[in-house]
Amino acid sequence: MSAVSVQKGAAGSFGWVRSAETARVLGTLVLTLGVIAWAGGDLFRQDLALLGATYALLALGMYLPFNLAGALSLAYSAYVAIGGYAVGLVATKTGWPLPVAYLLGAIASAVLAVALGFATRRLSGFYLAAVTLLFGMAFQSFLLDAKDLTGGALGIGSIRPLTFFGTELDRRTFIALTLLVVWITAVAVDRIRRSPFGVALQSSRDVPAAVEAAGIGVPALRLTVLGAGAAIASVGGGLFTTANQTIGPDTFTLHLVMLAIFMPLLGGQGSAWGAVLGAVLVVELTFNLQIFERSGSLIFGVAVLAVLLIAPRGILGYAGQGARLLRGLLTRTGGTR
Predict the structure, then answer these.
(1) CB 263, CB 55: distance < 8 Å
(2) 27, 75, 136, 211: which is deepest, by most CB within 10 A?
(3) What beta strand segments (E) does the chain contain?
(4) CA–CA separation, 88 and 98 (whole Å)
(5) In whole angstroms, what is the distance from residue 57 CA to residue 183 CA?
(6) pLDDT tens track for 251-285
(7) Are 31 and 214 in contact (CB under 8 A)?
(8) What number of other Cβ atoms are within 10 A of residue 57's Cβ?
(9) In whole angstroms, what is the distance from residue 242 CA to residue 88 CA?
(10) What is the value of pTM for the model shown?
(11) Distance from C-alpha of 126 to C-alpha of 123, rounded to nearest angstrom
(12) SS3 of 156, please?
């Protein structure tokens, strides 16, 4: 085989990867616009879309440190709540625009996640999960006790809506904006996964000694993604609170974090879009399928167990494998003609 043919083959493979990436980005954008059109002016569908978007941002926030770096933190109920309370406090205590609240909530959550990650840097696995779970429980107690700041058990209500150049956004437009934020975040997280930084993250999860030997500090990598993941989750909490115009200690519970852990497992850990698909399936199984009524969580648990046993790569993982098999079949068929 000549060098020219090798270069042509490499260029062809690279071009196919670029085409697949472009198709994935455009395809997910079309799906997002389809969900926006589906929600429309129906209040129930808008609630489902908002809940799915909040779950998706939480799952994307956990995807970075957990699925890529192997650092399981269960303190995400605190980070989501910080985003929500930042919106509540800014909306009711100041005259600042609400986007400032999203920024402040994301910064506060990131700083807290980095501080907690630094304090628990020597822990891993079950011990790290247990300590961060206790932190999430303690933070919920703090929200109840700090009545002057958080409103205690009553929380904060009468939160003003988001405005754009002095014009108040209606609920339909705000839901569309929230879904577009999810799409942009998923595209960004998926690109991080495939970047050299993402490769280093995944290597730090699988072979941390080799990454350290290459001169890359594994603790610094994990602290970085812990902060980034907390900031993403915080934005989800802020958007959810803005749409509902109220926030309380029971708005974001530990139950939500437990669901978020399994969203990428259900959708597929090989891509950030697996977290989004998992969030959609969770909302569908636990809220929209009325045939299951109160057994939605049980159905979700059974679905996760079935996926782990039958398709451990998740739904998107096996969809991608099917697409590669089909492409190989089409290539061979074309080559024999």
Answers:
(1) yes
(2) 75
(3) 163-164, 167-168
(4) 9
(5) 10
(6) 888 888 888 888 888 888 888 888 899 898 888 87
(7) no
(8) 30
(9) 8
(10) 0.86
(11) 8
(12) strand
Q: What is the 3-state secondary structure (H, E, C) of 179-247?
A: HHHHHHHHHHHHHHHHCHHHHHHHHHHHCHHHHHHCCCCHHHHHHHHHHHHHHHHHHHHHHHHHHHCCE
- Is 105 within 8 Å of 238 (Cβ atoms)? yes
237 and 105 Cβ atoms separated by less than 8 Å: yes
Q: Please indicate whether residue 109 or residue 281 has the higher confidence score (pLDDT).
A: 109
> Scanning the structure block, which residue is given the tokens 């079309």?
30
Query: What are the structure tokens assigned to 122, written together?
Result: 């020597």
Name 72's Cβ contacts closer than 8 Å, sequence gap at least 6.
65, 66, 125, 128, 129, 132, 261
The pairs formed by 320-328 with CB atoms below 8 angstroms and a separation of 24 or more are 320/268, 320/270, 320/271
Distance, in Å, from the CA atom of 280 to the CA atom of 263, rounded to the nearest integer, reads 9
pLDDT, one tens digit per residue, over 55-91 is 999 999 999 888 888 888 888 999 999 999 999 999 9
Distance of CA 256 to the CA centre of its chain: 12
Which one, of 120, 102, 126, 78, lies nearest residue 251 by Cα?
78
C-alpha 203/C-alpha 201 separation (Å) is 5
- Token pair of 6 as six digits: 């090798």
- Paired with 186 in beta bridges are none
Closest by Cα among 184, 262, 221 to 68 = 221
Residue 78 one-letter amino acid? A
In 3-state terms, what secondary structure has residue 24?
A: helix
Residue count (the chain): 337
Within its chain, how far is the Cα of 322 from the centroid?
25
